[in-house]
Amino acid sequence: MKHATELTIEDNIARLRLNQPDKHNAFDDAVIQELLAHLQSLGERNKLRALVLEAAGKHFCAGADLAWMKRMAGLNREQNLRDAAELARLMATLNDFPVPTLCRIQGAAYGGAIGLIACCDIAIASEDARFCLSEVKLGLAPATIAPYVVAAMGARRCRQLFLTAEVFDAEKAHQYGLLHTVVPSEQLDQAIESTLTQVLQGGPQASRAAKQLVKRITDVSDDVADWTSALIAALRVSEEGQEGLSAFFDKRKPRWTKGD
User: Fold this and answer.
1) For tag attachment on the chain, is the N or C end more exposed, with fewer CB atoms within 10 Å?
2) pTM for this model (two decimals)
3) What values do phi and psi take at 166, rounded to 5?
4) Bridge partners (DSSP) listed for residue 178
5) Which residues have CB under 8 Å from 201's CB, separation 6+?
């Protein structure tokens, strides 16, 4: 059976790949569990030096899988809370990963994908990359990823992007602080390898300690993760969330855009 993700390890460098290009690497609960399992296993490798998070195909990740969204819309609040808590756990696990993490981005990176990017230490994208936090158009909010996205781009910028759900390009993502480097598509792999070389110049224990230093100063509390999970669960089952998701799947505008 083909897995949604693919893990390779060579010379103590792990490469974790989203591997469903036919679905634009959209994720669901199964993908979340695969990623969590890989990260937890890798985190126990004392000799691991770095992790590269990447994606096969044209797009990095189109966000939540449509079938998963539809299924979640039909569940009750408690079921949605458990589901949201797993996504929050994935973000926290990636954010707190003990060794340096690099994210390689191309094409679309929407919704939860921006959370994955924000949780990595270094984000490098091709100049064709596009980003969007579109949740409000569905009557939802980017709740579980918000602590990490706000940490990356700042509260004021996130107010704008969360509220307008506008699509922004790689240059703006760089200006906003989500990306560290933007390169032409043909130079993306070279940029990743060059940055890896730089990272590996540091002492293995010093690199881990440096990450712990930043975490200690800027840690996201468990209370925040619990609150964001509860928020998205409540929104999914709310009247507005149900209307937004129904409108999306019916390919119509939600009622609130018509002045109702």
Assistant:
1) N
2) 0.92
3) -75, 150
4) none
5) none
